[in-house]
Each structure stands twice: as structure tokens, then as C-alpha cells.
Amino acid sequence: MSQSLGKASIAPEKPVYILNSASVVGTKEGQGPLGLLFDKVGEDDMFGCATWEEAESTLQKEAVGLALEKAGIEKEEVSFLFAGDLLGQSIATSFGISVYQIPLLGVYGACSTCGESLLLGAMSIAGGFADRVLCVTSSHFASAEKEFRFPLEYGNQRPLSASWTVTGSAAFVLGGEETVHGTKKNGRGGPRARITGMTVGKIVDYGLKDSMNMGACMAPAAASTLEQHFIDFGSCPDSYDKIITGDLGKVGQRVLIDLMKEKGYDISGRHIDCGIEIYDGESQDTHAGGSGCGCSAVTFSAYILKQLEERNWKKVLFLPTGALLSKTSFNEGKSVPGIAHCIVAESL
Asked: Taking the mean position of all CA atoms in its chain, how far away is CA 320?
């Protein structure tokens, strides 16, 4: 029986569970409204390392270790690891998780990487290609600034439309139904949530070139994937307790709501954004909100899954968004295309 649905979606025939997860963040994130929910908050953003890039690698290493510990499994019990980050050739991932020696499939979807890795991991389990997989991603404010904008020493000013790259990493252990029974039998506790649907996004480019307004650049891709998801699943905004984007921020949120209204969907009453939730917009100077691979990842692990576990929400649409630019494309005057991938997560 085909698990494909509509033009771009997947409805797993067999259940796929988020067995457990872990989040590690920097000091600024720990001071925000979700600070008490993260598994670990660093004492400083260098995490005992000599460079920002090494610090980001440490974030991933610690997130994977914590996720394995919380799930009560050994690294040898994991079939595949799906991972990526924002740095050139995913060096934070390469140097961060090599110690685990788990077969790796590197992924890159910019800030949508959390959604992409979860989607690919769930597909592997639903298709019978793996029993357990790990999905991890990260970002670091200082390494991202150096990669895409200016070194911190430059002291450049940021417009109000700019977002603040989250320093953080989250790892998720996914498994099928047989791993859930094994987990319970071995006293490891039950899973956190179930993945019941996925929609793969496509590249959407409205020709916007302002890398300091990534929310507006990514919003069209979020609208495209969201509309396709509604069509493929025959659903609507009221089908979900929350529709949660990754890091559109305040500017991108307004653009997305307007675009969806043009398509005939009103999501204004159900939409929240991880980039808005993770920081206090009044006391923390983050302008439009948070962004980066770690933004949606740590918010999903620490906050969204907790709401599903406590049954405050029963069904959510998780839609991380990514701006597909590089310093080369930016310097050549290219536009900033966007992409968004969608996961349906339900409480148990």
C-alpha cells in the first residue's frame, strides 16, 4: 500500500514515534521565556572551546549524548543519523558527532534542516529501512554571523527586520512501534509524540534580496508548503491546535498570514513562530526574533513536545523554514530563495 499522499506528502502506514529528545542552548536562550525547559544551558557561549565553530560542534555532541541517555539506548542501537548545520560543508556536524560513529546522512535545508532531518528519519522508519534513527541540527550566533554576515568585532548595526541566530542544538531519537514496546519493557519510559504526516517543500523564490529580512524571504515558501499540505491531507487550519513555523519572526509571520489569507486560509488564530517564542521581545534585543537551524529544533524539543506530552495540544503542524543563501550568492547579488518542510506531530 502506497504511503504517498497527494502531490508532495506522506502518510506513514506504520506509526513513527519520537522516542525522546534533548536540547542544549546558549546563555541568551537560557535567559528567554523557555529557559527552564531546555535540558542544558551553557555557562558561556564558547562551551569551553577555542573557536565558535568548535563550540557549535560541542552543542551537537552534547545534544546527541543527552538524547541517547534520555531514550535509554546505546549508540550501537541507532541505524542512521540525519544531521546538518549552517556552516560551510556542515563542519559543525562533521567535527561534532564523528565520535559516535553512527552511519551519517548529512542534510542541508538552511534553517529548515530540523524539519528535513525529521522527515527523512520518519520516512526511513516507515519504509522499514531502520529501527531507530537520530536527527540533529545546530546553529550558533557567532559562527553564523562570521559565515554569512560580519565578524562580531566589526560591530555592524542590525535593522529591525533582522533576526538573531539561536545558539543551540537539539537531537531526536525516532523509532517504530516495535522500539516503543521494547522501550517500555526495559523501563526507559514511553515516547514523547507520534509523527503522522509529512509534506516535502519546494524552493520558492519571490526575488527578495534582503538577507537582513529573512522572515519575508522565507514566508512564501512556508505558504506554499502549508497550502500543499492542506490540499494533500484534505485538512484546514482548524484541523490543528497550532501551526508552528520555524523562524519567520515578527515580520515573516505577518507576511505568511497575509499570503495564506490570499489563498483562502485564515491561520491567524492558530499560528505561532519558534523565533518569536524563544526570546522575550521586550527585554532581549533580538529585533524580529530568533532564527538558525537550532531555533526550531530546540523549541520543538523543549516546548512543543512538552505541550503534546501534557495534552495541552493534541495535534500540531510543525513547519521549519529555511533561507537558501550563501555568502557567495549574496555577494553576487542573487535573491534569497526559501524552502519549508512540514511535520504533523500528535500526542499519544
From this structure: 5
Fold matches, 4-185 and 195-346 = yes
Asked if the 195-346 domain carries CATH number 3.40.47.40, the reply is yes
What kind and span of H or E run contains 144?
helix 141-148
Q: Quick one: cell of 233?
A: 491531507
The rounded distance, in Å, linking the Cα atoms of 337 and 9 is: 21
Q: What pLDDT tens digit does each residue of the chain (348 aa) get?
A: 679 999 999 999 988 999 999 999 999 999 999 999 999 999 999 999 999 899 999 999 999 999 999 999 999 999 999 999 988 889 899 999 999 999 999 999 999 999 999 999 999 999 999 999 999 999 998 887 777 666 665 556 676 667 778 999 999 999 998 888 654 434 456 799 999 999 999 999 999 888 778 889 999 999 999 999 999 999 999 999 999 999 999 999 999 999 999 999 999 999 999 999 999 978 888 878 889 999 999 999 999 999 999 999 999 999 999 999 887 887 788 999 999 999 999 999
* Rg (alpha carbons) of the chain, rounded to whole number: 18
- Whether 18 and 12 have beta carbons less than 8 Å apart is answered as no
- Tell me the C-alpha distance between 241 and 96, whole Å: 35
Of 191, 163, 166, 159, the C-alpha closest to 178 is 191
What number does CATH give the domain 4-185?
3.40.47.40
Separation CA 131–CA 178 (nearest Å): 8
**C-alpha cell belonging to residue 16:** 513513527
Give, in degrees to the nearest 5, the angle at Cα 197 between 195 and 202: 120
Q: For residues 68-91, b (16+ Cβ closer than 10 Å) or e, as one string? A: bebbbbeeebbbbbbbbbbbeebb
DSSP assignment of 180-220 equals HHHHHHTT----SEEEEEEE----B------TT-HHHHHHH
Going from N- to C-terminal start, the domains of the chain cover 4-185, 195-346
* AA identity, residue 128: G
Q: Enter the pTM of the model.
A: 0.94
